[in-house]
Amino acid sequence: MTEPLLSIRNLKTxxxxxxxxxxxxxxxxxxxxxxxxxxxxxxxxSGKTVTAESITRLIPEPPGEIVDGTVRxxxxxxTAMSEKxxxxxxxxxxxxxxxxxxxALNPVYTVGWQIREAIQLHDKKAKDKEARERAIxxxxxxxxxxxxxxxxxxxxxxxxxxxxxxxxxMALASNPDxxxxxxxTTALDVTIQxxxxxxxxxxxxxxxxxxxxxxxxxxxxxEVADRVVVMYAGKVMEEGDVYEIFExxxxxxxxxxxxxxxxxxxxxxxxxxxxPSTTSPPDGCRFHPRCPYAVGDCEIGEQPxxxxxxDGDHAVSxxxxxxxxxxxxxxxxxxxxxxxxxxxxxxxxxxxxxR
Amino acid sequence: MxxxxxxxxAWTVVATFIILSLTFGLMAASPDPQAASYVAQQVQEGGDxxxxxxxxxxxxxxxxxxxxxxxxxxxxxxxxxxxxxxTRSQPVTEAILEAWPYSVMYxxxxxxxxxxxxxxxxxxxxxxxxxxEDYAASAFAFFGISIPDFWFGxxxxxxxxxxxxxxxxxxxxxxxxxxxxxxxxxxxxxLVVTLSSIAxxxxxxxxxxxxxxxxxxxxxxKAKGADSWxxxxxxIFRPALVPLSTILVGDILNIVLVSSYLVEVVFGIPGLGQxxxxxIIQQDVALVLATVLIPTFIAIVGNLFQDLAYTVLDPxxxxxxx
Lengths: 355, 322
What we know:
The complex is a heterodimer.
Chain A: E1 6-17, E2 20-32, E3 37-41, H1 48-55, E4 64-73, E5 76-77, H2 83-89, E6 94-97, H3 101-104, H4 111-122, H5 128-141, H6 147-150, H7 160-171, E7 178-182, H8 190-207, E8 210-215, H9 218-224, E9 227-232, E10 235-241, H10 242-247, H11 252-259, E11 307-308, E12 314-316, H12 328-331, H13 351-354
Parallel strand pairs in A: 3-8, 3-9, 6-7, 7-8
Antiparallel strand pairs in A: 1-2, 1-4, 4-5, 9-10, 10-12, 11-12
Chain B: H1 2-29, H2 33-44, H3 49-60, H4 66-78, E1 84-85, E2 90-91, H5 92-127, H6 132-146, H7 149-163, H8 180-213, H9 216-224, H10 228-267, H11 272-281, H12 285-313
Antiparallel strand pairs in B: 1-2
Helix pairs in contact in B: 1-4, 1-12, 2-3, 5-6, 5-8, 5-10, 5-12, 6-8, 7-8, 7-10, 8-10, 9-10, 10-11, 10-12, 11-12
Subunit structure (chain A): The complex is composed of two ATP-binding proteins (NikD and NikE), two transmembrane proteins (NikB and NikC) and a solute-binding protein (NikA).
Subcellular location (chain A): Cell membrane
Keywords (chain A): ATP-binding, Cell membrane, Ion transport, Membrane, Nucleotide-binding, Translocase, Transport
């Protein structure tokens, strides 16, 4: 098997603050292949964004620091790269899309100027005129109507959805192999969300781009993900194929997350308690203080390793799934579907085609 | 945009008119120390009180009705006939023409140095927050803000003039303008004015740039592959220019209204500050008015340029076309 496009191993990103060291990401591993969409889910503060921004070292250093682990992109170790190499990587082979399109564009430059900047930073030979032509093409490709006349407009003259398309156009300026999208639809109108997700999917099909999508919206996950990584307090709780995660959620945290989803035809519930302290996290499983199935073993030692669930692409960090342990403690007596009708694509049988 | 500029220009004219009218009102309502001393002198020499007063008023045109005087005053202002300075026995405009180059000689370099260095250091502080350099710059800025101009000036004279003998103790106005000697004697006053304005420039540009250092669009620029120099100059400094442009006018006013008086009196520079100071002490009403009107006009014109600069710097401002 060839090496995946992006391979994160045991990544630890800490922030050194006056209140102590914040262990925002504390041993995260994940892989992304070309043409694959991996969704990183978890509630706010679980370390999703820091994971995403650690990939190209966008986090401010200091106070941030990647203290351990490797990030390999196409065979090269990003954590060992010089600033010059990183600058070539950012916006070159790896494009970024951010959560808030209102703030992601510089208000004093035209959108054309900003897309041209993205092009010319990585293609030093591109003359202004040529870069402008390419910028118009990009705007056209991301679905800005009348791109030729709108290229000289300023960001405030566009709507939120249009701005996000422009941000995507900038991310695509150098035909990247990997797109990192940090909650790209969270700040947008529901009607616009689907358009943006479809646009990303088109891009992926056209260029076989790998996508890391950060989101807390399980609806989005169901829509676009091939694989899912569930994060909690800087650790990976569960990962696997999107259908596995939705049909057979195994970690108590994943199950609790799914129970928070409205529209399953069952009673909605919230997860009691709140995220643990990031400066002094609890021993054992990070989730045990809020976990209804916690036993003595959960409170000691390190976060449990990833145990395989069934035979498929599915692993979970929970003592109840240790070989020899009894998973039915979490899954219920019949061993399946204790959460209820949560399904990939929200139960839409044709959902796979919608994207 | 055109209409915005036209309206802005029209408002400048209106504001000037209002200020001139107010000034006239104040002048008409205030007692005239010159008249008092003239009448007192006439009476002492055996003249009649009433007659002396009348002859003074006739000579000054004060016997005319108020609106006539107002008309003459406004015409005088527009035609640059700003009255007669009793204490200097010359037209007010002539006194100002003689004085202003001396103020410009130290104020211009001080303004340029403090703006360029102040903004540069402020930007560096903002992008290197809580570093040793940032703390050093902050300490320097607070020193500059805290130390009074006149005291710092006296210290300079004492240390570099009296003890070390590097600079003259007071300003020699008979030295040719374009000579090394003149440059030498302008160094100390320039430094004093620079220190007081660079401090506020540094603090202001640091605070302004800090708003943009963590802005999302700066992160976008980083994610596009922009290096740190490009991020600071293109993505932090350029949007920060909009608020930064506002401080320049205030800075000039601060020099004209505050620093110039203190510095020129301490160093003995015959500039506008000293001219105004002496006029106030000697109650030379016409000259006081003229020297006070200068900063007023600087404020009006400065604000005009500032608003025009906004039209270029900030594309988000809506000018409400007619």
